[in-house]
């Protein structure tokens, strides 16, 4: 079975079994700084919408609510644990001292609107809740900005999956393209593992 098939099968199985709660749960994991990319979760939710298993609007809404749940956990780490907690545990999700300083500087210049903008940016959206917690951003504003910024992201990815699902059985070239993508995904995963291990080693050396 292909790499994308295994990963996609897991996500589709989770969403098929739990429905909108599955979408919300998977997106909560991603937003809690655990590397489970929304770029895979939401398109599969959109695919299920294309075959009538879900509604596109509610799939995006469930994804955005999941972002709020996971982001609240990350926010709490920053709010209650402070810099020591973020610096100690952040390195395990590739959020080290350098990334923390950059996020704090960006947050200091832009204020709370950083959360809204950050939710629309790849990678940044996963970690933006940490500096928001450190800055003790008001909870209500944090929740509103997180949802408003997350919903378009979730809908856009779900819509892409919806259109892909519609074309799957009518465009034979699509199957060949997806097979080529398997090779690219395998290479990216290998590079990602090497990079992750290297970053962990660098973080350990820096703490000595």
Write a concise synopsis of the structure shown:
With 208 residues, this protein is mainly α. It has helices at residues 3-18, 20-31, 38-50, 56-90, 97-110, 113-118, 124-127, 129-134, 139-168, 172-207. It has one domain (3-207).
What oligomeric state is this?
Answer: single chain
Tally of contiguous helical segments: 10
Global structural class: mainly alpha
Overall pLDDT: 75
Strand content: under 5%
Helical content band: over 70%
**Which overall shape is indicated by the principal axes computed on the Cα atoms?**
elongated
**Biggest sheet: strands, sense, closure?**
none
Could you give the order of the helices and strands?
HHHHHHHHHH
Radius of gyration: 18 Å
Low-pLDDT residue intervals, each spanning 5 or more residues: none
**Care to count the β-strands?**
0
- Number of individual domains: 1
Structure explained in plain terms:
This protein has one domain. It has helices spanning 3-18, 20-31, 38-50, 56-90, 97-110, 113-118, 124-127, 129-134, 139-168, 172-207. It is mainly alpha-helical.
Note the main attributes of this structure.
mainly alpha; 10 helices; 83% helix
Describe how the helices and strands are arranged.
Layout (H helix, E strand, L loop, with lengths): L2 H16 L1 H12 L6 H13 L5 H35 L6 H14 L2 H6 L5 H4 L1 H6 L4 H30 L3 H36 L1
Helix pairs in contact: 1-2, 1-3, 2-3, 2-4, 3-4, 3-9, 4-9
